[in-house]
Amino acid sequence: MILDGVKNAEIIKRKISEEVSRIREDILLAILMVGKNAASEVYVSNKEKACEFVGIKSRIYKFDENISQKEIIKTIEECNKDEKVTGILVQLPLPSHLNADAILDAIDPNKDVDGLNIINQGKLQKGLPCIEPATPKGVITLLKNNNIELTGKNVVIVGRSYLVGRPLAALFLKENATVTICHSKTTNLKEITRKADILCVAMGKPRFITEDMVKKDVVVVDIGINRVAGKLCGDVDFEKVSEIASYISPVPRGVGPMTIASLLQNVMTCYKIQRNLMD
After folding, report:
1. Are 214 and 241 in contact (CB under 8 A)?
2. ∠ CA 72-74-76 to the nearest 5 degrees?
3. Model-level pTM greater than 0.90?
4. Deepest in the core among 57, 88, 228, 241, taking most CB within 10 A?
């Protein structure tokens, strides 16, 4: 069965749109983008459109490729102080001369819609309430919305990035799953992935996971996105693995739409935190 990210994201966005319509003040997302990365421009455009769809306003800051770290942090600090700004997002990746961690850590944790500030990351690892990174949050939501049991399941995550792999592991642990993280130095990878009840892949290697690396009826979440011969594909060989898996997310139309829907949810969480409206 296909894990349809588009269908699930639309349901979330409709609920957010209804919520925003009841609020009598603007909700504003500030998006900072450096340089002219084609993929980043597409992602930012998609986020703008999603904000517009639900009634959230967006303000885009575009910086030259050679901008200094000091200048970006100055803009972030201005947004931190601006009561009209509900959330702040720095579009990644950043040019190599910039320290992404320092820039993300400059964001007010209560405006950190990507959940990548060290405060939110630390709270996540301790199992405390926090703003959860959008992509891992989207993965968990997609599984839950399809009534896939997480408690006690053997989850294997291929990829250990701070953007996806590590926070996703923390979220699965919160759901009482048993989690194994694999990466480029893992030996006997196939033996590990074949034991997974739920396999999540975020490596950035086109069609890396093949049918001999999974067991029958596994749930596969493909978080990778690659362009091969002008077409998008994930890190999983979808055609062959889908014949074995009980559930599988496609690329595109899988985790991508859920990431944006989760981002919008996080903007609303930031709004509620700032207005002391959290339960």
Report:
1. yes
2. 70
3. yes
4. 88
| Average pLDDT value for residue range 73-82 | 98
> Which range (35-39, 141-145, 237-241) has the least confidence?
35-39
Q: Residue 261 is encoded by which pair of tokens?
A: 């829907």
Residue 84 carries which side chain, given as an amino acid letter? K
Which residues neighbour 44 within 8 Å (Cβ) at sequence distance 6 or greater? 31, 33, 60, 91
Q: Does residue 279 surpass a pLDDT of 80? A: no
Q: Residue 10 CB: number of other CB atoms within 10 A? A: 14
pLDDT 10s digits, 133-167? 999 999 999 999 999 999 999 999 999 999 999 99
Environment class of residue 116 by beta-carbon count within 10 Å: exposed (0-12), middle (13-18) or buried (19+)?
buried
User: If you count them, how many residues does the chain have?
Assistant: 279
Name the token pair of 12.
């979330």
What is the C-alpha separation between 37 and 33, in angstroms, rounded? 9
Q: What is the 3-state secondary structure of the chain?
A: CECCHHHHHHHHHHHHHHHHHCCCCCCEEEEEEECCCHHHHHHHHHHHHHHHHHCCEEEEEEECCCCCHHHHHHHHHHHHHCCCCCEEEECCCCCCCCCHHHHHHCCCHHHECCCCCHHHHHHHHCCCCCCCCHHHHHHHHHHHHCCCCCCCCEEEEECCCCCCHHHHHHHHHHCCCEEEEECCCCCCHHHHHCCCCEEEECCCCCCCECHHHCCCCCEEEECCCEEECCEEECCECHHHHCCCCCEECCCCCCHHHHHHHHHHHHHHHHHHHHCCCCC
Which residues are the active-site residues?
A: 47, 91, 114
Q: Is 105 exposed, middle or buried (0-12, 13-18, 19+ CB in 10 A)?
A: middle
